Amino acid sequence: MAExxxxxxxxxxxxxxxxxxxxxQLSQNGEYQCLEAGSGxxxxxxxxxxxxxxxxxxxxxxxxxxxEVCQQLRKAQVSVPIIMVTASSGEADTIRGLDSGANDYxxxxxxxxxxxxxLKAHLRQHALSEDAVLAIGPYTFKPNVKMLIEEKxxxxxxxxxxxxxxxxxxxxxxQKAVGRxxxxxxxxxxxxxxxxxxxxxxxxxxxxxxxxxxxxxxILVTDAGGYRLVP
Length: 231
Hints:
Blueprint (H helix, E strand, L loop, with lengths): L6 E6 L3 H12 L4 E6 L2 H10 L4 E5 L7 H10 L6 E5 L4 H9 L4 E4 L4 H17 L5 E3 L2 E4 L4 E4 L4 E4 L2 H12 L5 E2 H9 L7 H15 L9 E4 L2 E4 L2
Parallel strand pairs: 1-2, 1-3, 3-4, 4-5
Antiparallel strand pairs: 6-7, 7-8, 8-9, 10-12, 11-12
Helix pairs in contact: 2-3, 6-7, 7-8
Pfam family, one: Response_reg
InterPro entries: CheY-like_superfamily, OmpR/PhoB-type_DNA-bd, Sig_transdc_resp-reg_receiver, WalR-like, WH-like_DNA-bd_sf
Organism: Dongia sedimenti
């Protein structure tokens, strides 16, 4: 079975004990990897050099209002989900947080289960959004511009609309193999004139583009009567 790729979460909170505890709890099963910042300035510095999948951002930071930090992150083109964490549950504060560019707002004290559920929901939603930037093998996948980018090799691979749709659907499926008929129906619709041969032809062309050795696929693999992406 393919190894689980941990989602990288930026935790921004000046309460070191809470931050460390939350990082430990989120990292327990390997689903998340946490980056930590104790101030707004530190969070903005990390955002310039690191990639992450979501942000948990405390409102009460020692050097800035978390909502201002949220605005600055958005101005810096950080498009990932941002969940604000606050000691206040007032409606006015919630509105201010959302207006600053946050995706969600959760009040302390919160249950870990609720936080994780919200985090997962926003990560799934972001993966479907037009401005999503997804990781597939050695590539950065940008569905909105139909492109795979391999930064180390300074390589850009242009994709067709169908190739983009295939990768998006397989990415959403995670580690679960998607049957040929299912993938055919999702990408082409149930068009009577389209057969699994059409899908197999597109998979073949995709492998020619993305695999080092298309005959021995390591990224887009055949599995359980269908196809699956390996992280």
